[in-house]
Amino acid sequence: MPIAHVNGIKMYYEYSGSGMPVLFSHSFTSDCTMWTLQTPVFSRKYQFITYDIRGMGRTDSPPGEYSLDLHTEDLYQLVRHLGLTQFVLGGLSIGGMITVHFALAHQECLKGIIIADSAAARPHTPQLINPEEVISIAQSRGMVGLADHMISNRLLAPHLMDNPYAIKEYRDRMARNNVIGYCSGMRALSRMRDRTGELGQVTVPTLIIVGDLDTPFIEPSKLMHSHIAGSKLVTIPGAGHLANIERPREFNEAVLAFLETVPS
């Protein structure tokens, strides 16, 4: 089980394949298993690397204040641990936000970036309208209790509410989360500063992906596209917030087409 000791924590990561390194960060309340449908596809031609961010999956969930800057430093230290000098960085949801922050801090390391179902500023999602409410539920009822609250109050995306498989996957995924990591991560998202005005500094090739059902992230994706010169925006029909899982073929095709344009 690959573990890197970085930035004061033990961080879990996985890798497969060889070639140009492509490193992906997962969504909030998930872990690197969310890339199961991408790993065998991307690793045919590239070295595909995934990891669990601080507070999620098999990476440590220490108490204390988290931030997007802290997640970015964690990633930078992982990159140094792995000996990567130039690579493509991608991420979905909070992983995309980490990608934005990393590009603004360490662009010299990057061959290109992929931002999926994400934003350069605090997103307007139900959980972040009143983050302390969901944090309180998690602390008092645990992660399964929070999942049941979200389901019973129909706070998930409408296209998921009538999908029994999606509901079960969501509940199971939440159950694997750590309350400390969730609460600290939620506060980090709620405090996220707006980086939109800085996106003009990004000069590496950029792909932005969003599902056409991912309502809170459609306009933020268009906004990022308008601020990053030469970026490409791909909208995936029938996909919500987890485009890589809900429409894996279309997601993979968009990423692979982009990677073909990135000089190795």
From the 3D structure, determine the CATH topology.
Answer: Rossmann fold
Distance between the termini: 28 Å
Number of separate strands:
8
User: In CATH terms, what is the architecture?
Assistant: 3-Layer(aba) Sandwich
**Low-confidence parts, pLDDT < 50 over ≥5 residues?**
none
What is the CATH domain class? Alpha Beta
Question: Biggest sheet, in brief?
Answer: 8 strands, mixed
CATH superfamily: Alpha/Beta hydrolase fold, catalytic domain
Provide the helix percentage. Answer: 40-55%
- Summed up, the domain count is 1
Order of strands, widest sheet:
1-2-4-3-5-6-7-8
Give the SSE order as H and E letters: EEEHEHEHEHHHHHEHEHH
Q: Overall 3D geometry? A: globular
Q: Any overview of this molecule?
A:
Helix content is 44%, strand content 17%. Helix 2 (68-82) packs across helix 3, helix 5 packs across helix 7 and helix 5 (131-152) packs across helix 8 (179-190). The chain is built from eleven helices and eight strands. It has one domain (3-123, 193-261): 3-Layer(aba) Sandwich (Rossmann fold), CATH 3.40.50. Helix 9 (215-227) links the parallel strand 7 and strand 8. The protein has an eight-stranded mixed beta sheet with strand order 1-2-4-3-5-6-7-8, with helices on both faces. The protein is α/β, with parallel strands linked by helices and 264 residues long.
Q: Main traits of this protein?
A:
single chain; 264 residues; alpha/beta; Rossmann fold; 8-stranded mixed β-sheet; 11 helices; 17% strand
